[in-house]
Amino acid sequence: MNVKITYYLDVVSSWCYWAEPAWAELKLRYAEASVEFGWAIALLDESGMPKSRAQEDWFYRRSGTIVRSPFMLNSAWMTHAMEYLPPNCVAEAAKDFGVTDDCVRLALTEAALREGQPVGEWEVAVAIAAKTAHLDAVTLLKQARTPEIEQRVRKATVDFHALQVTQRPAFVLENNIGDRAVLSGLVQVAPLAATIDAMLDDAAAYASHAAHFGPPPPN
Q1: What does the DSSP 8-state code read for residue 217?
Q2: pLDDT tens sequence across 79-91
Q3: What pTM value is reported for the model?
Q4: CA pair distance 184, 154, nearest whole angstrom
Q5: Do 75 and 89 touch, CB atoms closer than 8 A?
Q6: Does domain 3-213 have CATH number 3.40.30.10?
Q7: Which uninterrupted H or E stretch holds 181?
Q8: Which of 11, 114, 121, 208 has fewest C-beta within 10 Å?
Q9: What are the residue ranges spanned by the domains of the chain?
C-alpha cells in the first residue's frame, strides 16, 4: 500500500459518530487506490467524560448543530462510568473472529448514541455485536473480557496519546516514502482526501523517479 490511514476512536464518542460518514466516503472514494484503512481504539477517560446527562445533552446539541444534523443524539446510554471498556473491548475482540471492518463498532455506536442502549454493560454490548456479525455471544464475551483484549485497547490508547493530540477522531496518514500527517478533531472529507491525494502523488513521483534513475549511486 502506498498510503495507510489509521482512525483513532472511542465507540461512544459523539464526534467519532459524526466522522463516520466521512470515513465511509473515503473508503469508497479510494477503494481502487493503494490506500489501506484501519481503526484503533483511543479510550475516552474521566477528563473527557461529561459528568451528567444534562451536560452530555449540551454537548450533543453543540455538535449536532455544528454538523447540521436533523436529529439529536441520545444520552440515555450513559452510566457515569469513568471509561467505557465493554463496547470498545467487544469491538476489538470481534477482530479476532475475522470481523475487521466497521460493522460491529458502528452497530454499538448506533445502539448507544441513537437508541440510548446501555452499551456500557457487557451483556448488552455483546448481544449487539454478536447479532450484527453473526458470532456466538458466549464466545465473543469470553474473548472480549480477556486481559489480552484490554491490553490491546490500552496500548492503542497509549499510541493515541503519543501523538500529542487530545481530540477524537484522530487520523494518522502515512505513505511508503515516509510522509506522515496527523489530523485530529476533523469530521469532514475534504482535508483528509486532500492529504491522501498529496501522499499518493508524492509516492507516484518517487516511483517514477526510481523507474528512470534506479537507486542512488553509492557513496
Answers
A1: P
A2: 988 999 999 999 9
A3: 0.94
A4: 19
A5: no
A6: yes
A7: strand 180-184
A8: 208
A9: 3-213
